[in-house]
Amino acid sequence: MATPKTKKVQENELEDLQKAGVEAYRNKDYKAALEHFTAALSRPGSWAIRGLSNPKRYELLNLRAAVYEKMDGKLEEAAKDARKMIRLDEKSVSGYLRAGKVLGLMGKWESALGMYRYGLERVPAEDKERKILVKMYEKVERKVEKMKSDAKRTDPLIVLPLELIDLVMLKMDFRSMVRCQRVCKTWRDFFRIHYYHTYRKLDFSHAVTAPKEKTFDKYINLSHLSGRAPIEEITFSRFFTKSSDALVKKCISECTSLHTLRIPQGLPGAFVDASCFGGAGSLQTIILECKVRFEDMVKILQTCKHLQRLECHKVDTSCPSSATPWWHEIECPNLEAIDLRWAEGENMIRMGDMQAFGSTSDLPRAMPNLRSIATVDCGLMRFFYHWNFTGFQHLEQFRNQSGWDVHFPYLPPSTTILSLRGNQLISRGTIEAFPLPNLHTLSLCENSYMSNYCISTILSHLSSPSPLRILNLSQCAGIDATELLWLLAEGHCDFLEELHLVGVTSFGDQVTREMGCLGWLKGIDISQTRVTGAGLMNIVNGVGRKRAEKMGREKGVEWVKIVMCDGVGLDAIELARKMGVVVTYLAPKKSALKGSKVRYGEY
């Protein structure tokens, strides 16, 4: 039998081995820690008193099991030590916690859940550490339930063929791609490797909060790492502020292949500074939906020599004339489209400032290849007696929307689309003779002073036979549409394919009988007019006969819009649809109940 002195020596040896093992464990020297704990367990002192009265052996088994967890391929040995702990003391929490953790590391979560349940049945309720066992049981229980529910799901990346996955993924936008990458790590790695084109177009327009600089750095780095997907297009978030200029400058300088930049409306008071576009030689398209000063817009045109399209949706002209250079300092040989929309309340320009703006004769030299011009509430137009655009030899589209009393523009023969919306310009006889032999789309909608004579004058300047295919006269209250001889005379509308007469209240059934000469008409919009079901059938039966003969159809007209035409009955609509005509009809649903609200629905 060991003497008390011998027991003291054995306890000291065990204590020293335990301390050495713990120190090695902290230093991540698991091999040395295992040797110390194993040596301590083999000492006679650890076996001197067996069973429940030997807490030292219990503690050493727990420490050695922790070492086995950290070593590769030793989980089975850790599980054996955990079971030995439970056999030594069934009422202690540590054994069950260790066994459950080891089983979880082995992927046996249901066994781990059973181990925690077994421990809860044997550990006394008054044990303070029992709460830890309850929390682990609840945590593992949720994990097992989630695994069972996930097992019923099917990963589409595994089931679907790669060809079908490609068809789906190539149609997804940046926002959807980012959401897919957040599903799991497998999806994230799959998309980053196989669908690196995601980073070519960064779109933050749907961001809930303002993206930080590190977010842009992340995608720029991913683009550089892929090597095959340089960033080509960036759309900033709607939280654009003045402080975001530095971020714009950073993206332009680091994304050398960037060709499209779009900045949304932004927060109130946000302006775009032209200084952030320095070195943007590769930019081809700039869309600025937030406010931009006129002088900054001009500086952008001066800086971006390769620009092909510029859209400024809120141009602010409240800047000093001395700081506003004009077209004589601009050279944009590649510019093909420009869209200028004046900010609300900022379209008033002082006459004294006009000297800084120059004249329209300077524009063709600065932009020789311009093909499309669009202006909305352009305050400049009211200061020129005529806008002369004949110098633009390649101009194809001219669109203007304004409530100002401006004059009819001079346009080159290459013009194919002309839209003058809301202009009070025809009433004073400002139409000049200008040949437009290639014009196929003419829109004069929302011109309250438009008259039959004005329209006939414009059409008389077209070539013969007329190339006109689309004519929009909607919301022109001054038109007398009780007869259409003035419109159909001289064959200017013989090849017309679309006619829009929305809100022309003088249009009725009598006029529909005269429309048989429109042999090529395929669609007509006569919403909010006095036409009835009889007029609808006149259009279906009489319009577009030449088109019908060429295409082998029973009827020539393909679609008719009669929104809010109370005189058209459902019987006429159903009959027209049976004849193959697409009819869009919206009318009040008259309820039989008195006093009920009038609701609208599509039939």
From TrEMBL:
Oxidoreductase is among the record's keywords: no
Domain F-box: 154-202
Pfam entry (one): F-box
Domain of life: Eukaryota
UniProt KW Repeat keyword: yes
GO molecular function: Hsp90 protein binding
Keyword field: Repeat, TPR repeat
InterPro entries from the UniProt entry: F-box-like_dom_sf (IPR036047), F-box_dom (IPR001810), LRR_dom_sf (IPR032675), TPR-like_helical_dom_sf (IPR011990), TPR_rpt (IPR019734)
Gene3D superfamilies: 1.20.1280.50, Ribonuclease Inhibitor (3.80.10.10), Tetratricopeptide repeat domain (1.25.40.10)
SUPFAM superfamilies per UniProt: F-box domain (SSF81383), RNI-like (SSF52047), TPR-like (SSF48452)
PANTHER family, per the entry: STRESS-INDUCED-PHOSPHOPROTEIN 1, TPR REPEAT CONTAINING PROTEIN
Protein name: RNI-like protein
Organism the protein comes from: Terfezia boudieri ATCC MYA-4762
